[in-house]
Design goal:
It comes from Streptomyces tsukubensis. The protein is mainly β. It is built from one helix and ten strands. It has one domain (14-48, 64-174): Beta Barrel (Lipocalin), CATH 2.40.128.20.
C-alpha cells in the first residue's frame, strides 16, 4: 500500500506521540453486503507499568518484534457508540502498546496479551498485516500532523470483506 496523503509527518517515538486522549470517527464498509456503519467515541492512551512478565518472550513464536523488557507502554482503551444497520450500541476495546526493542517502535497486543501487529511511525506511514483465521487484516497507518492520524484496515477473506477507516484527532481539552 502506498500512503494516501503526501504530507506525512514522521514520528520518532510512537508511544510519546500517541499518549493522551483522541476523538475517534470510524466508518465500516461491508463490501460484500453493501452495508455501512459508524463508530464515534474516544481513545485514551494511558501509561502501563513496565513490561516484566516472567516467562514472556515478547515476540517469540507469535510474530512481531521483541518488546523492551523493563520499558513501559500504553493502554489503548476505546469507547463509544457503534451504529450498524440502523442500530446503535455501546462499543469498546482495549489494546496494549508496548515499547519494542527498536527505538520509537511499538508492539501492539490484544488485552489478553496475544500479538496483533507491529507499529513503526518513524516515516509517518506504516503497513501491518494480521492473519485472523482465514481472513487477512491489512492496516495502513498514516500520521497527518501532530494532532491527527488515520488507520485504514482492509479485511479480506472467506468470512469478511470490509474496509474500516478511522480518523483520530487529539483531544486538546484532555491531553
Amino acid at each position: 500500500m502506498q500512503p494516501t496523503d503526501t504530507s506525512l509527518h514522521p514520528v520518532p517515538d510512537a508511544l510519546l506521540y500517541l499518549a493522551g486522549r483522541w476523538q475517534v470517527l470510524r466508518t465500516a464498509q461491508d463490501l460484500a453486503g453493501g452495508m455501512d456503519g459508524t463508530f464515534t467515541g474516544t481513545t485514551d492512551f494511558s501509561d502501563l507499568p513496565p513490561h516484566d512478565d516472567e516467562g514472556d518472550e515478547g515476540g517469540g513464536g507469535d510474530g512481531g518484534t521483541e518488546v523492551d523488557k523493563g520499558a513501559g507502554g500504553l493502554s489503548h482503551h476505546e469507547s463509544g457508540a457503534f451504529t450498524w444497520n440502523g442500530v446503535t450500541r455501546p462499543a469498546e476495546r482495549t489494546l496494549r502498546y508496548l515499547q519494542a526493542s527498536a527505538a520509537g517502535t511499538v508492539r501492539v497486543e490484544f488485552a489478553h496479551g496475544g500479538f496483533f501487529h507491529d507499529l513503526d511511525l518513524r516515516t509517518g506511514h506504516y503497513v501491518a498485516d494480521h492473519p485472523c483465521s482465514l481472513d487477512m487484516y491489512r492496516g495502513e497507518f498514516t500520521v497527518l500532523g501532530p494532532d491527527r492520524w488515520r488507520t485504514v484496515w482492509r479485511v479480506a477473506g472467506p468470512a469478511k470483506d470490509l474496509v474500516l477507516t478511522t480518523e483520530y484527532r487529539r483531544d486538546r481539552a484532555r491531553r
